[in-house]
Amino acid sequence: MKWLQTMKVAALSTFIGLSAGTVQAEKLGYPEKEELTFGFIKLTDMAPIAIAYENGYFEDEGLYVTIEAQANWKVLLDGVIDGRLDGAHMLAGQPLAATMGFGTKAHIITPFSMDLNGNGITVSNAVWEEMKPGIPKMADGRPVHPIKADYLKPVVEKYKAQGKPFNMGMVFPVSTHNYELRYWLAAGGIHPGFYAPHKGDISGQLNADALLSVTPPPQMPATLEAGTIYGYCVGEPWNQQAVFKGIGVPVITDYEIWKDNPEKVFGITAEFAEKYPNTTIRLTRALIRAAMWLDANNNANRPAAVKILSQSNYVGADYDVIANSMTGTFEYEKGDKREVPDFNVFFRYNATYPYYSDAIWYLTQMRRWGQISDDKSDDWYKDMAAKVYRPDLYTAAAKSLIAEKLADAKDFPDFATEDGFKPAQADFIDGVVYDGTQPNAYIDSFNIGLKQGDKI
């Protein structure tokens, strides 16, 4: 595969360049920029940043970091672009969208994937009561999971027949939550709508059965309670908050929509990485160590992590609300708490490695729903992924940790053979198989969504 050979050579040459500048005789060079400011949104999956700070991993790298909560994802992205922030906890789709020019155009990269899973879809109590009768039950009367959107479809159709729009919330147009909610709805025969940026329509509601709109994560429960939306897709702790407040029922986790799906990334500008290569490797090392700590000894450190995250300067939700998902359980309907040990994954399953195939999945969904207006070749998807996702930087950081015996090689991909593409994945709620090397064939496999040759 010519593209792959080219990428391997590029990655190798980048690593050799890094080796000359930052890893000399297994010793890292000094950080070019020591004082850094990182942004985040108040979600539990910002944990690697908080832990790298609280456990002193940033300081171990000679980095003196300030961490600042941001009002919303746009403010956060703009802060990285204009230099107010040196890096940030980002939606996986944000660096891709920015680099290709959907929204604000800027070349953003990621050397580090922050986690797997971590989201859920919640509906209001009223909607749940309408869904519930049709859902199969276990012997103890609890619903059989996963709950498909098939059981929501009659509710949406009833609302449409009454002339009432069925409104749902997601956190940002290029968020994992938007694509997961759309995926779940479409798998159940509910059209989530198209975007048409070439026509100036970025509502994402063209031809929609359910109308999706942006709501900042911490505001989701209150917006649901007010009746403005009937359901939402968000990260924790805002699904569990709905349970604790008694205003809604989480019906499915993203783990059940796509098992071990990539979630957030750590984003920096390409310019930052080029100007401060030592700093880039060092901050990546600190984040890797934090992720390792979060998953160590079968999540033994999670209660301590929850205590940190519950602080007002981080997530600021009650300890019990955060612990409900962060410590290996997830509560659906009130009292229906189930074991979900992989609801939050920060390091195992190579969670921190920035796979090209992860990036390509997001790009296929952008095309499926019209955010990418025109057909693109398979190579275009692969080239765009390689501009943004930087396993070469991750590899340099990981190898230096292994060399210093701060990490074990067996816990990482085999860097000698890793090509950045996961094997074909079949663990989706609709059973459709995803192969990152065949993006157009994948796009064409769905019943609902744009296909090759289609344009709104």
Largest sheet, in brief, is:
5 strands, mixed
How far is the first residue's CA from the last residue's CA?
33 Å
User: What is the CATH topology of the largest domain?
Assistant: D-Maltodextrin-Binding Protein, domain 2
Amount of beta strand: 15-25%
Superfamily (CATH H level) name of the largest domain: Periplasmic binding protein-like II
Radius of gyration: 21 Å
How are the strands ordered across the major sheet? 4-3-5-15-6
Structure annotation, total helices: 19
What is the CATH domain class of the largest domain?
Alpha Beta
Average pLDDT? 93
Shape: globular
Runs in which pLDDT lies below 50 for 5 or more consecutive residues are: 5-26
* CATH structural architecture of the largest domain: 3-Layer(aba) Sandwich
**Number of structural units classed as domains:** 2
Structural class by helix and strand composition? alpha+beta
Query: Would you count the extended β strands for me?
Result: 18
DSSP helix fraction: 40-55%
Provide an overview of this structure.
The protein is α+β, with helices and mostly antiparallel strands and 456 residues long. It has 2 domains: 289 residues, Periplasmic binding protein-like II (D-Maltodextrin-Binding Protein, domain 2), CATH 3.40.190.10; 141 residues, 3-Layer(aba) Sandwich (D-Maltodextrin-Binding Protein, domain 2), CATH 3.40.190. Helix content is 40%, strand content 17%. The chain has 19 helices and 18 strands. The protein has a 5-stranded mixed sheet, sandwiched between helices. A 3-stranded antiparallel sheet has the order 13-8-14, sandwiched between helices. Strand 16 and strand 17 form a beta hairpin. Helix 1 packs across helix 18, helix 5 crosses helix 17 and helix 16 packs across helix 17.
